[in-house]
Structure formats: structure tokens, C-alpha cells
Amino acid sequence: MKRNKVILRIVVTLAAVLAITFWVGMSSKEVEAAVIEQPTPINEIFTDPVVADNVKTLLEKADVTDEVTQTDLDSITQLSAKSAGITTIEGMQYLTNLSELELTDNQITDVSPLANLTKITELGLSGNPLKDVSALAGLKSLTTMHLIYTDITDVTPLEGLTNLQELNLDINQITDISPLAALTNLQTLSLGYTQVSDLTPIANLSKLTILNAENSKVSDISPLASLSSLTEVYLRENQISDVSPLANIPNLSIIELTDQIITNQPVYYQNKIIVPNVIKGLSGELIAPDTISDNGAYTSPDLTWDLNSYINSVSYTFNQSIAFKNTTVPFSGTVTQPLTEAYTAVFDVDGEQTSLTVVVNELIEEPTVPTKEGYTFDGWYDAETNGNKWDFAVDKMPASDITLYAKFTENEEPNASSSINVEPNDDNSINVEPDASNSITVKPTENNDGTNNPNSSGDDKINIKLPITGDEWNVLPIFVGAVLIGMGLVLFRKKRQTK
């Protein structure tokens, strides 16, 4: 037993030592770039002919078939090949000292060969059909990166590149820039022609001096109010209605605010449309409309339209010069108010009405089934008389107001009481007739001996009350049957016991 314990302790100790050694080795191991072990022809290292030719030129070799060593490749610190038709950058993992790489406008889809080139400070990959840039997450030395016009939608891999000072993400389908919140050294950020609507993540980038977010989806620029270092801001062709957050940014000198496209939430069409003005200047004051569609009028703070028939929208424009501390710039755009064609559906229950507004060609929501004492609800009809029954699963709202009437059918009630008159005939038979008194009237006949019999025509009557339904005596046979069965069971048991 003691020997087993010793062996167990030795095994545990060895396992612990191995685990610690492995952990230390892994944690202390730095990312290493790939190396070639022996002289190799350039075109065998770099499989894309354009890249191979560039390397040949940089190394002053006669042909791409010439052999190079790792030392040769280490001498390359810059490489540029714009619009060269490059499809793969395989082999670039051996350019261990590369600091500047420009590959704009090629056909590169995989950037994984760059994953361990940690000395790169400037990287241009614009105009490539890239969807995944996760391989760039470890390039911590990057200070400048251009990813214009790619296929990326997720910028999460960039969140750890905290040395970035310039980042261009123009013309991408990006919506969420929250990973950029940690890039506190950014001085220039470009998000033009993207789907970005929320600038909140950049509110704390205090070193930011240039921001481009033109032709995006920005409507709220209040996150910029805290960016006191801003000198240039490009915000044309967005959805901005209020420029007051820019009022206290001291060093703004270049500002673009033209051609805003603002679309309000749809409202139901009515003959008279009233819409509040939403355009505000530097001090929060309302900016009067420049033009108003469809003969609309403006009396601050509202715009009003008197419409004779349905149209799908009304609009107004604005164009105002805004005086900043260092410059005066135009603030212009169009505000559109969409109108939804909708009418009133009225539900009439014996003169009592409720209503709701329903969009044309949409299904009407069926109301709660009404009740009426003594009646059964038949459904809703589109006319008070001779109307058609409304099918809420099929019938759609017309382009006019409509009234639907609740129809009921009176319930058929059985006679609450009935009687049977029993009167003798001359042949001693008995007529049985119902009577409203719910009784049986029996008229006896008189015998010669002074007694009465059923076919008597005397006035004496015997009234026997009958139940409305069923038979008052129909329990007796059941009771008798139950007693007989019980007696039979008792006798049967006694007989068995005697055996």
C-alpha cells in the first residue's frame, strides 16, 4: 500500500512539472514568421507571378527562377503592387522584415500569409474582395491601414490594433463600429459610403482630428460633441437634422453638411397633414423651410398641407448657412414625410360603434365576438341589410371608410310547459291532448251502480301533473333491478360458502 502511494506521488509530480513546463513554453513563446531552410527559386516561394516578379526586382535578380535565401528575403522592407491582378500572396509569410505593404486593387481573398508579419506598420488592401480580415488581428505595429471597397462587414478583428492612427473603411457594408472604441490613438477615421448609423463608439477617441462619414446612415451626431480635437468633419449625404452638437468643437475648420436626406416615420393620410419642423441650427433654433411641396405652408413650428386626395408623401427642403467659429458652411437637404393610405373600419353592434384605422389592402383585425342575450352571433356584414358576410382571413380594407354590422339570430326556445287533456270517447277510448296548464285532465264516466269509469262524461276531473321531460317513475325499474342483482350476489356467495 505504501509503495503504491509513493508511485502515485511520483506520477502526480511528473505530470505537474510537465504541465508547468508546457504552460511556460507556450506563454513565453513569441509569434514567429516563417523561414525558408535552404535556397529556393523565387517562383517556388511566391506562387503568384506578379508577386514573384516584384520580389525579383527588389532583390535585383535576373529571373524569377533564381534562388534566394531567407537572408535575401529579410532585406525586403517595402513592397507595392497596385492593380496588378494578384490573386494570392502565398510566400509573403517569409518577408519577415516587411514594414510597408501596398496591394490595392487586386483580387486577393486570403490574407492569412500576413498573420505573423508583426513589423508591418502600413498596410493597403483596398479594392480587394476580402470578406475575412481576422488574420490581421495580430499586427499590433500597424499605424496606417486602408480597407476601402472590400467585402468586409465585421471589423471585430481590428479591435486590438491600438497603435492605429489612420484607418480607412470607406465603401464597405459595415453597420457596427463598436470594435473601434478601443482604438484611442486614431487621428483619422474614414467611414464614408457605409451603413454606419451609430457614432457612439467613437465618442471617446480624443485624438481624432479628421472624421469622414459622408453618404452613410448617420442621423445623430451628438457623440461628436466631446471630440474637441476635431478639425475636419465630412458629413454630407446623411440623415442629420440637428447640427447643434458641433457648436462647441473649437478647432473645426472644414465641415461638410450638405444634401441631407431625412425621412420621417410614416403617418396616416388625412386631408389635412400637420408635420413638425425638425431642422435645427447650431443653437438648436428651428431653420425655416426653403421650399414646401404640394402647396404646403409653414407657421413655426409646424408645416401644414391641405390635400384633396391621397398622395404617398409630402416634403420640404432646407438650405441655411451655418456660421462656425472658423468658417461658414451650408447646411442643406430634404425632409420627406411618407403618407400611408388608411381608412376607418367601424364595427356596429345594434347602434353601438367602435372603430380602428386600417391600411388599404391589409386585413382588418377581427374584433371580439359580441354577445346578445337570447341571440346567436352570425358574423359581421358590410351592410345593415342584405350585406355580404366579412371574411377577416381574406377580405381586405378598401380605399374608403367601411362599416361592418353585427348580425344575430334569435334563439328558438322550447315551450316552458305543456299539459295533456285526457277525455273519454263514446267507445271508452281516451283522447290525450296537450294543454297550457301542464296537467292531465281525466273525465270519468259513471256506471249503472253509481261508480265512475274512465269513459264517464261527468264533470269530475283528476289532474295529474307531468314533468316537462322524462318520466317521473322511470327510476323504479332501475331500483328493483339493482335490488335483485344484489340479492343474487348474496345467494351466490352463500352457495359457494356451503360448498
Automatic annotation (TrEMBL):
SUPFAM superfamilies membership: E set domains, L domain-like
Identification of the protein by name: LPXTG cell wall anchor domain-containing protein
A Pfam family annotated for this UniProt entry: Internalin_N
Entry GO terms, CC: cell envelope; extracellular region
Residue span(s) of domain Internalin Ig-like inter-repeat region: 284-340
Family recorded in the similarity comment: Belongs to the internalin family.
Domain Internalin N-terminal: 31-74
Biased composition range(s): Polar residues: 414-457
Domain of life: Bacteria
Keyword Transmembrane annotated: yes
Organism whose genome encodes this protein: Listeria monocytogenes
Keyword Iron appears in the UniProt entry: no
Subcellular location: Cell envelope; Secreted
Keywords associated with the record: Leucine-rich repeat, Membrane, Repeat, Secreted, Signal, Transmembrane, Transmembrane helix
Lineage: Bacteria, Bacillati, Bacillota, Bacilli, Bacillales
Residue intervals passing through the bilayer: 473-492
SMART domains xref list: LRR_SD22, LRR_TYP
Location of the region described as Disordered in the Swiss-Prot/TrEMBL record: 413-461
